Amino acid sequence: MESEKAEAFYNRLKGELLKNTTWPADYLYKFIVPTDPKRINQIQDVFDNTGAVIESKQSRKGKYTSLSITVHLKNPDEVIEKYKEVGKVEGVISL
Which InterPro entries match (predicted)? Predict the structure, then answer.
């Protein structure tokens, strides 16, 4: 994403989270990443020390791994911060 589009996306997301969620709250992240232990570990490292529950499942052919991460966060800014950190992992798709 270009930075201008990314900022517009995050601003819209923050507005929706403020409108539809009572904070603090549990938030569910879903990511798809090529099955590569290094990349998967990079994503898991973002959520270290947060008490996150991380579930992973490989695709039928094993080429991709989906990660569902549930974590208790204080506010929408924390949600966005984690998306930005995970976005640095090569090949990750945020759902």
Answer: UPF0250_YbeD-like (IPR007454), YbeD-like_sf (IPR027471)
The pLDDT, as a whole number, for residue 2 is 62
CB atoms inside a 10 Å sphere around CB 73: 20
CB 56 within 8 A of CB 67: yes
Share of the chain above pLDDT 90, in %: 92
CATH (domain of 48): 3.30.70.260
- CA 26 from chain center: how many Å? 13
Residue 36 and residue 64 in contact, taking contact as beta carbons nearer than 8 Å: no
Range(s) of the domain holding residue 10: 3-94
Question: Each residue of 28-57: pLDDT tens digit?
Answer: 999 999 999 999 999 999 999 899 999 999
Q: What is the DSSP letter of 63?
A: S
For residue 83, the number of C-alpha atoms closer than 13 Å in the C-beta half-sphere is 20
Q: Is the pLDDT score of 1 beyond 80? A: no
Q: What total of structural domains would you count in the chain? A: 1
